[in-house]
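Note to self: keep these together.
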Amino acid sequence: MVDTLIEEYTFENFVVGGSNRLAHAGALSVTERSDRRYNPLYVYGDKGLGKTHLLHAIGHRARSEGGLVLYLTAEEYRNKVLWSVRNNEPDYFRARYYSLNFLLFDDASDLGQMEEVQERFFHWFNTLHLDRSQIVIAGSRHPRSMPLLDDRLRSRFEWGLVTEITPPNLETRLAILQAKADAKKVELDPEVLDLIAHRAQTDIKSLEGALNCVLNYKEAHQVKKISFEMAVEALEAVNDRTRRLSLQPDSIIRATGEKFAVPEDVMKGPKRDREIVLARHVTMFLMREGTSPSLAGIGRELGGGIIPQ
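Structure:
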């Protein structure tokens, strides 16, 4: 169960700043304290800000101390539930996942879609909590901002500590870039790091992507050291590609779905819950403004649903 932990996602490799300090402290606390003060620990924020890194860091620390750890995403959990139902295996979870020291549950915002899945998770949560297993949950939204989440789960997610990770400020972005450059054994001038930090401001993934873009440019042009001008050229090239890709219908559907916590398959499905309908309408508007397809084309992209005139 612990083999899914990413090797480099440790506390030692996590750069702490004002945007994630409380979440980092909470993550350390659940590995160091036995009183389960923060149970569950719920960490939320946009994608690419380090939530998954913290979950894996907790897992590595707990495993090093002999703990039995399970890292699982909401999608993986949903698939396991559906498998157990289809194969008439009601004891599938109890036999495998009820004797844990740590449950690390990722992408919790994707949980609020199927009543059967939520019901089973509710009972699993209760059992683990009563057994004093540490539960750590990560999601893109605060529990109160998940309209499809069962009220009982929403309440339980707030039992311990709920903490947000926000986009890193400039100082933290520079520290992250320096740490990643050091890990790759690459020396970059301060002005190049500053350029990357100013170009990629939203999340750590975009920072790493921009850094990799600059390093790939260095390798492609076989230069020993990349200049500020070369870094500008490398980032401009990737920005042009990103702008073209960002206007594709599938990327609009995906981005809007993430914003409203509505999965892509639900967006394209027949459900008409208020939050889902709102997400669809925003998607339709962005498609018409950004890609200029026909109404029929938008309908096809959204699974053939009816498009309002």
